[in-house]
Amino acid sequence: xxxxxxxNYMKSASGDPSTVWNWDALAMSANNMPPQAIxxxxxxxxxxxxxxxWFRWFVxxxxxxxxxxxxxKKTIVDVLADTIVRIDQIYxxxxxxxxxxLADLIARRVMxxxxxxxxxxxxHASTAQRQDLIDRAPNGPRCWVCGYAFDQLAIDKFLRRRKxxxxxxxxxxxxxxxxxxxxxxxxxxxxxxxxxxxxxxGDDNLALSCGWCNKNKGARTSIYDVEGRAPRSVxxxxxxxxxxxxxxxxxxxxxxxxxxxxxxxxxxxxxxHDELFIAPGDYRGAPNLNNLSVTCQKHDPYAVDRLMPLxxxxxxxxxxxxxxx
Length: 325
What we know:
Number of domains: 2
Strand content: 5-15%
Strand order of the largest sheet: 1-8
Number of helices: 11
Largest sheet: 2 strands, antiparallel
Radius of gyration: 24 Å
Low-confidence stretches: none
Mean pLDDT: 90
């Protein structure tokens, strides 16, 4: 790693917050690409999410799929007719055959999205489906996101084996991933891996999730679906004071994509058979995407410190605040 690249970038990067509202300054900043060395440890996810958003905006900016969903008489012919008009307007000086080919590619992509929306029917898992999800878990029923192993009481409640089952919050809660602040967090829920709103459907899209991961994932699919700053709250983690909490969706997104302990030893822990945790790095840095990693219990640097009494954890998360203007 060349430190000179980082230093040169820092010298040339604007530190003036007013430039975010200045077009010329933005244009200059856009041409000043950061070196690879400063990208966060999870840069593949961040870049992929960025490119996916840009691509979706491009396609949907040309032709909005939602215009065709309700009217099932609309076909790809209608989509193509609308798309070619837009292509001809924007790329009028390009060769006609290339314009037609691009319009066809966009129309096919849009129509695929239209068809997905048309066939979406939110799957409410039947008792048989619930039992199948429990039975087919090779290492026992676990949350597909974090690997949390469900206890028998949660399984009985999920399968509706008897009435009146209540799940209690634990006495101690992981302050970094506070499963248990609500009793829902401890239960088993049927998760749509690809959100129904995003086109997901069918039995193959169903998985078991703990209530905490399910509610904090929601219908989000991109790291940019949430704000880019960690929520503020003062708490102690071991001997060090921290001023921010990891954003819950960052935790879910990282755990669900990495699915493994990131310890340098090449740890074999995977979410399919181990519970995984989010761990901030050095206390001098904020617990953001450049300072968070996935760990198993064995390699967790906060294995004891992260557990706090339930009431204390509730207070810390209740006091969280967004970054002030």
